[in-house]
């Protein structure tokens, strides 16, 4: 956004037609897309939330089905609601949004079906309307951030269906993004699909994933599987959609070094995160890729509103 206009960086929701994510990436997607924040506003709100919510509850990790989160789910809920009201919206504002041109979705798992579920700001032909008509912004944020074993599941709807995050299998939501985009195009064009996609941006959370703070072998193994799966998903998508990349319509950004041992709850280490990201984007290869991405965004935006979509990975 800064490269588009360094004097007055635009908001992502003004350039991207769809933004989606999972885990804390889903939370960021909602802040950028549904709440219409600038990147600077999002960084401030996210770091404030981390300082408030990523605080240990003092309870031990319980890896069985009756999960007790090690972090305070109540504080996370309060912090999310504070962000919503800080944007001038009611605390229980629905995620559903019929006014904004930017569509938003976040991913979670249903504990009842063990299948991924999309909470969306829009109606889609693939989804029944019960969740989109009742899910609030804060509930969607809580569901996608309900990372076992850090936070407890959340119950949503009259049947109290329980949801947790998509830590295993869908923490890189690029394939879900692709499906959601295709459905949105099909719906908006009388059932006829055509190659409107101009720019797809995939943002990772850093290569090699994270290491747990506690010495918990099973948790360590789980986190390593998450790390491998995100990279494998990205590689598979790139191979299956080689034309997108060759034509300059797909860009994957993922910090390669420096985030290996920084966990989601270690917000005090934000200077290390910033330094690692700065080092990554200053490399010649990434700098050139960012330049091409900006050219793709700006050239199409001036001519017509052609679809740009962004997906933000779990951390």
UniProtKB/TrEMBL annotation:
Any coiled-coil regions, as ranges: none
PANTHER family assigned to the protein according to its UniProt record, in alphabetical order: CALCIUM-INDEPENDENT PHOSPHOLIPASE A2-GAMMA
Database matches in Pfam families: Patatin
Organism: Sporothrix eucalyptigena
Keywords linked to the UniProt accession: Hydrolase, Lipid degradation, Lipid metabolism
InterPro entries per the UniProt record, alphabetical: Acyl_Trfase/lysoPLipase, PNPLA_dom
PROSITE patterns according to UniProt: PNPLA (PS51635)
The protein, known as: PNPLA domain-containing protein
Residue ranges occupied by any PNPLA domain in the UniProt entry: 1-178
């Amino acid at each position: 956004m800064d490269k588009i206009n360094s004097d007055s960086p635009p908001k992502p929701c003004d350039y991207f037609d769809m933004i989606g994510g999972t885990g804390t990436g889903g939370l960021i997607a909602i802040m950028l897309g549904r709440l219409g924040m600038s990147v600077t506003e999002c960084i401030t709100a996210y770091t404030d939330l981390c300082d408030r919510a990523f605080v240990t509850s003092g309870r031990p990790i319980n890896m069985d089905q009756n999960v007790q989160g090690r972090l305070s789910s109540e504080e996370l809920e309060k912090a999310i609601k504070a962000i919503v009201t800080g944007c001038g919206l009611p605390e229980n504002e629905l995620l559903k949004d019929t006014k904004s041109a930017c569509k938003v979705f976040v991913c979670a798992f249903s504990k009842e079906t063990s299948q991924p579920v999309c909470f969306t700001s829009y109606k889609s032909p693939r989804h029944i309307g019960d969740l989109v008509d009742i899910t609030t912004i804060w509930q969607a944020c809580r569901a996608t951030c309900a990372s076992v074993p850090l936070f407890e599941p959340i119950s949503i709807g009259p049947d109290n269906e329980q949801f947790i995050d998509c830590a295993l299998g869908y923490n890189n939501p690029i394939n879900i993004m692709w499906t959601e985009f295709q459905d949105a195009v099909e719906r908006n064009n009388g059932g006829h699909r055509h190659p409107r996609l101009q720019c797809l941006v995939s943002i990772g959370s850093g290569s090699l994933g994270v290491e747990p703070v506690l010495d918990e072998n099973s948790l360590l193994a789980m986190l390593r599987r998450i790390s491998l799966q995100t990279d494998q998903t990205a590689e598979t998508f790139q191979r299956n959609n080689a034309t997108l990349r060759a034509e300059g319509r797909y860009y994957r950004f993922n910090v390669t070094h420096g985030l290996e041992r920084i966990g989601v709850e270690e917000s005090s280490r934000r200077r290390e995160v910033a330094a690692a990201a700065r080092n990554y984007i200053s490399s010649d290869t990434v700098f050139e890729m960012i330049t091409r991405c900006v050219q793709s965004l700006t050239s199409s935006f001036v001519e017509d509103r052609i679809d740009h979509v962004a997906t933000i990975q779990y951390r």
